[in-house]
Design brief:
2 helices; single chain; rod-shaped; 76% helix; mainly alpha
Length: 106
């Protein structure tokens, strides 16, 4: 059984760029979440104002941490796809050069 591997360099470049764009979008969302605050005075004189603010801060922090985690994964995926693409290109060039040499080329 023969297994073929086809590396589409342009597709890999697009995937890496798309992941980088996703990362950048998530960074903008993360910045917006960092700026989200709830002032206890905004709630007026309701009794659980402090508890509401604390719950908001906890949820906001958890959301920011989750976004940051996904951001990091997007960056790693983008970088990894680029490395793999470059490795395939290098291997392809090396094999081509060896065949050229075997066929009497320069």
């Amino acid at each position: 059984m023969t297994v073929r591997l086809l590396a589409e360099f342009d597709a890999m470049t697009r995937v890496a760029a798309d992941q980088r764009q996703s990362r950048n979008t998530l960074i903008r969302i993360q910045k917006a979440r960092r700026e989200a605050v709830l002032d206890p005075d905004a709630l007026g004189k309701i009794l659980p104002a402090r508890e509401v603010v604390q719950a908001f801060r906890a949820v906001n922090l958890a959301t920011r941490e989750g976004i940051w985690s996904v951001t990091q994964r997007c960056e790693v995926l983008s970088d990894t796809v680029r490395v793999i693409r470059n490795d395939f290109r290098d291997i392809d060039a090396e094999i081509s050069a060896r065949f050229e040499h075997l066929l009497g080329g320069a």
